[in-house]
Every structure is written in structure tokens, then in C-alpha cells.
């Protein structure tokens, strides 16, 4: 890489309350540009946690896929255990998660409940919404430091528990989440990934999995608040949505919920504290068509705010990281 190319990546806008923004001018072929700048971009993400690249002019899925492949430097990950459906565009390129536009997706780390999760996430904006729809980012180490010590200590000691009740009406079905309609294959996956499972009389599936709430970054060693305790908890849902789901499915049949690692409920006050700390550490930049955002998924949480109008964001997952390589505080045993 030429010194001028390296220098251009150092010209990054950094403003309070906003993620770092790198502006590029007419790079020509976006995939070729990404290939040439790959190492510098990844170094920038390692340093800053996330970067928004503006000016690439990304317009269609094949172009985005080629850019994602170059940045990943290898195959993109296939998603398993999704909590809501995504539309696949091409190998390893997905739509953003299907979620009601008027409901926020609060801060979380992608697949933080899995035994292997992406170390890097890539987002590309093909269509920006008329209003809202920002993908916010938040530094997981700063969040950890800002949380009450007693709360952190309990979650660090006990971990967190994700409970799921798969059905064909809300969120991803079990066949969509596990990528197969073969019950035997689902059971084999669950045993290999430390997931307790129970089949219901109506054909539904309920699962429980215990994971660490705090991990160490595999490269930097920094301690990070890494989980989806707030996002997948019942108290993050809008009150009318929560009441409807409980009325239809019951307390134990919610499509997803989170608990302390010993099974105790997580109170509304805890979820409120988590979301308030996230909000205090959120950086935002409205999407523009053609934007690319690269995120260190362990160091940096991300969110999606409510929006109006069409919104098309493509997603790629890369750099698979095993939980075992992140100094988990909770032992996980597979069968």
C-alpha cells in the first residue's frame, strides 16, 4: 500500500457522540479499493472499535458482497441461532434483521449467545430511511466500567441465561434459526453447543443456554460487556407488546427472554440501568446511501433505532471467534 493510501485512512473525522467517519472520493471499483485498503481499515477498526466509510457508492448486493469478501479476507460466516429472520442475498450476505420499524433494537453484540460468534460485522446501506433507522455503536469496555459494580460482579460470577420458545408466528422458527427442518440435526447442534432443549407437544421447541456476560477481547485482552441481556429481555419490549406476548404465550413461553445465570429473573430496574448506560455511550451517524460500516463485534455493541420509510441495510459476518478464546467467566460444557 502506498504511503498516500495509508495517509488517506488517517484522515478520519472524530466528533463527540458520533462514530469515526472516513470519507473517500470516487474510488472506482469499490471491491478493488477495499482489497487495497483492507489491512489499514482493519487496523483502524481495531483502534477505534468501528468506522463508517462514506463515499464508496455501494448500490447493489453483488457489489456489497464483493466488498465484504475483500474486507473479510476469507469466507463470510453463515448465521445460526438467529432470533429473527434475515433474507439471504448471496453467500454470507444478509438483510438486516426483520424487526418492526417502529420498535428499537437496543444495544447488543451479534450472536453473543453462541459458542462461536463473528469478530467483525459489516453493514452496507443501499437505501436510507426517510427518518431514523440509525445503527448506533457503543464501546463495550466503557459500558462495563460505567455499570454498577455489584451488577457486574453477579453477572460475571453467574453468567446470563437465554431462554427461547420457537414458534411459527414470532421471530425465527426453529427451522430458520438452525438452518434445517431435521429434528435430529437440531438436537445434535444443541448438544454440541451447550444448549438444553425440549420439544413441545405442538411441535415447538424451547431452549436454554448459559453464557458469560463479560469476556476478554482475544487480541487486546480488554474486558468487555458482551451479551444480549438487555436486548432479548422482556422488559426491553414495548409494554403493549410484552403484555400481548405474555397473554398469548405465557410467562414461560415468550419467544425469548434473559435471566441471571442461576435462573433468577432479571428485573425491570436492571434492564433500565443497562439501557441507560448504553444510551450514555452511544455514538450515532445517520445512514446515507452507499455507506459502509465496519464494527469490531466484541469491543463494540450496536443497535437499530426506529425509522420511517424504506430501509435496506445489508449485513456480513466475518472472523469467527470461539467463546473459549475470550476467557469466559462461566464454564460451558457440551455433550
TrEMBL record:
Keyword check for Iron: yes
Ranges for domain TauD/TfdA-like: 31-314
Keyword Oxidoreductase carried by entry: yes
Ranges where the record places region Disordered: 1-26
Gene Ontology biological-process annotations: antibiotic biosynthetic process
Keywords from the UniProt entry: Antibiotic biosynthesis, Iron, Oxidoreductase
Pfam families: TauD
Cofactor(s) for this UniProt protein: Fe(2+)
Molecular function in Gene Ontology: oxidoreductase activity
InterPro entries (UniProt xref): AlphaKG_dependent_hydroxylases (IPR050411), TauD-like_sf (IPR042098), TauD/TfdA-like (IPR003819)
Taxonomic superkingdom: Bacteria
Record-given protein name: TauD/TfdA-like domain-containing protein
Organism whose genome encodes this protein: Streptomyces tirandamycinicus
